[in-house]
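Exercise 7. Given the encoded structure of a 358-residue chain, write a plausible sequence.
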């Protein structure tokens, strides 16, 4: 086991995120001592590892496994109902606990199940993807999708602990790892420019889980998220900065019927937000170019179909992040200086899109 880093999240229910290698074996120590039953929610691809977890957590605890469909297919109310059924049949009590073991969709669903069973039981998140570690599993947003849209039903339910074992990333496909890295780049642009410097120095090393550069980037991104959600769990203010690149990004995901990875969509979204910042007279040409250079170095997209603008604009207007009927964008005044641009003129949005539309 290498050295472990602990990042604390403040708030009414503070908790620690641990980052390291070989730390999954210590999961038992962060579960609530009173829990006699543990439900491990996992996707089919992690069935074998979930079995090993069951064996290592066993002893005087009963470990139940709930295998759910991977990705967005798992974020459905029917899947939550399946987990509730497993818990009900096992007489799962209020002092028992749920473990979310998987990517962002799995930890979102596991969190929702924990938030709702008996009005809330303890939750430990064990993200197994880059996206899960730096974003989904940290911050207590849990939920399911409905036919009308993504994440429309859910609860803020902070976990008791988050365990980020980097060993779990070694078998991820390079595409998945790089797509997850888009959220790390976001953390660089809105909060910790050191991330951008590390990527520019050696992009290959930055996305390779065995390097110190990768670990530093992941830890900085988690630290950023921990600080933001520690201050503003319910997105009453500061947390909105996490939406940098997401307003257009969500519209692209919708337009692609979720076949694009989230990271790819928000990469284009961040270039768009940077262009919008520039056209609003806030951001220099150099920082906008820095966006394009970094995403290109990592093999992430910076452009989208020019003809898609009307449908993207319509999707953005429907997005729950456009509050009170007004579109809101996180823009930059500089690197690490995010701010809100409310209700920009449609002509400005169109002009910014001209810069990413091809
Ligand atoms: N993924 C954005 C947030 O947690 O608020």
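Solution.
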């Amino acid at each position: 086991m290498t050295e472990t880093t602990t990042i604390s999240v403040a708030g009414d229910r503070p908790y620690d995120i641990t980052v390291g290698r070989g730390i999954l074996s210590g999961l038992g120590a962060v579960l609530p001592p009173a829990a006699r039953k543990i439900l491990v929610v996992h996707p089919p691809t992690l069935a074998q590892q979930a079995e090993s977890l069951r064996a290592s957590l066993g002893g005087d605890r009963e470990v139940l496994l709930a295998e759910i469909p991977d990705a967005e297919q798992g974020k459905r109310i029917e899947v939550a109902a399946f987990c509730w059924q497993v818990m009900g049949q096992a007489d799962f009590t209020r002092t028992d606990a749920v473990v979310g073991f998987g990517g962002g969709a799995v930890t979102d669903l596991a969190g929702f199940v924990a938030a709702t069973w008996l009005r809330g039981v303890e939750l430990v998140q064990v993200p197994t993807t880059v996206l899960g570690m730096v974003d989904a599993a940290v911050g207590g947003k849990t939920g399911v999708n409905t036919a009308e849209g993504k994440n429309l039903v859910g609860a803020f339910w902070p976990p008791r602990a988050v365990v980020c074992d980097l060993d779990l990333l070694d078998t991820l496909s390079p595409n998945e790892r790089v797509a997850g890295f888009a959220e790390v780049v976001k953390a660089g642009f809105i909060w910790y420019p050191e991330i951008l410097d590390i990527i520019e120095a050696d992009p290959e090393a930055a996305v390779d889980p065995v390097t110190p550069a990768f670990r530093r980037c992941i830890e900085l991104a988690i630290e950023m998220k921990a600080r933001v959600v520690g201050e503003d769990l319910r997105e009453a203010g500061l947390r909105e900065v996490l939406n940098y690149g997401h307003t257009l990004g969500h519209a692209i995901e919708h337009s692609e019927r979720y076949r694009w990875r989230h990271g790819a969509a928000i990469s284009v979204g961040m270039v768009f937000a940077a262009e919008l910042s520039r056209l609003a007279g806030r951001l220099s040409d150099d920082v906008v170019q820095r966006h394009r250079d970094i995403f290109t170095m990592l093999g992430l997209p910076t452009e989208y179909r020019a003809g898609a603008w009307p449908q993207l604009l319509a999707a953005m207007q429907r997005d729950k992040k456009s509050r009170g009927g007004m579109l809101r964008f996180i823009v930059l005044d500089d690197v690490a200086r995010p701010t809100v641009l409310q209700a920009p003129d449609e002509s400005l949005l169109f002009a910014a899109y001209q810069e990413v539309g091809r």
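Remark. The chain has a mean pLDDT of 96. Students should compare their own answers with the one above.
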